[in-house]
Design goal:
The chain is an alpha/beta fold and about 240 residues long. The chain is globular, with a radius of gyration of 17 Å. The mean pLDDT is about 95. About 40% of the residues are buried. The chain is built from 7 helices and 10 strands. It has one domain: Rossmann fold, CATH 3.40.50. Helix 7 links the parallel strand 9 and strand 10. Helix content is about 30%, strand content about 15%. Bound molecules: 2-amino-2-deoxy-6-O-phosphono-alpha-D-glucopyranose. One of its GO terms (molecular function) is glucosamine-6-phosphate deaminase activity. InterPro entries: Glc/Gal-6P_isomerase, Glucosamine6P_isomerase, Glucosamine6P_isomerase_CS, NagB/RpiA_transferase-like. This is Glucosamine-6-phosphate deaminase. Belongs to the glucosamine/galactosamine-6-phosphate isomerase family. NagB subfamily.
């Protein structure tokens, strides 16, 4: 299989953030009413900071942008300090000219989670589909919260989090036992539907996952590997052993 994946190696987290911010800046300049797919975690924080600076300098605007986040924990209130809703507001939305009604995250606190999953994919489709999707990667190759073994045809769904993912994400909670056991996440197919994808990964912890992706083997045991079948993916990565 020949993949068209574009690889950009960087020397620092800041460089990764700037290169990723450049891709988002170009997207917003080319299409001010872009539909962006956004991610949480430590990886995108620097890129969000950079985009905030650029928006505040008047270089870009989010006035007509709509965003869809990849995932959210099940059972947390939006206002919980550890929710992805809070993360996104603190790191990006509160500091740029986004309209609150244009912000979407899956809601993990509804009674009918199955209906919310279907509705989330519908909302993305109604908006016209995601133009540019940002991804991080879990050490086990998860994207969004799609853990190893997830079907490549999955749409937005409810997942059981693996112990490794719960441990990785425990830093955002006062007590590791508070990390929810389930999440609602866009599926692999929902992610693949995006017109373009940027995946960012920096640091020793992520090297193994990046090497695995580079090896070119596509398998459901390594969720990110399906990206090799997408026509427009850029991987921005770096870090030393
Ligand atoms: N659900 C998120 C993922 O979307 C993210 O990519 C991953 C890596 O996070 P980090 O960037 O902090 O390493 O963490 C969580 O599991």
């Amino acid at each position: 299989m020949t993949s068209t994946m574009k690889w950009i190696e960087v020397n620092s987290y800041d460089e990764m953030s700037a290169v990723a911010a450049n891709i988002f800046t170009e997207q917003l300049k080319a299409k001010p009413a872009s539909i962006l797919g956004l991610a949480t975690g430590g990886s995108p924080v620097g890129m969000y900071k950079e985009l905030v600076k650029r928006q505040q300098a008047g270089d870009i605007t989010f006035k007509n942008v709509k965003t869809f986040n990849l995932d959210e924990y099940v059972g947390l209130d939006q206002s919980s300090p550890a929710s992805y809703w809070t993360f996104m507001h603190e790191n990006l939305f509160n500091h740029v000219d986004m309209k609150e009604e244009n912000i979407q995250l899956p809601n993990g606190k509804v009674d009918d989670l199955a209906a919310e999953c279907v509705a989330y994919d519908d909302r993305i489709a109604e908006a016209g589909g995601i133009d540019l999707q940002l991804l991080g990667i879990g050490v086990n190759g998860h994207i969004g919260f799609n853990e190893p073994g997830t079907s490549f045809t999955s749409l937005t769904n409810i997942v059981e989090l693996t112990e490794s993912t719960r441990t990785e994400n425990a830093i955002y909670f006062d007590d590791p036992a508070d990390v929810p056991t389930q999440a609602i996440t866009m599926g692999i197919q929902s992610i693949m539907n995006a017109k373009a994808i940027v995946l960012i990964a920096f640091g020793e912890k992520k090297l193994e996952a990046i090497e695995k992706l580079k090896s070119g083997v596509v398998t459901e045991d390594f969720p990110a590997s399906q990206l090799l079948n997408h026509p427009n993916v850029t991987i921005i990565y770096g870090g030393t052993k």
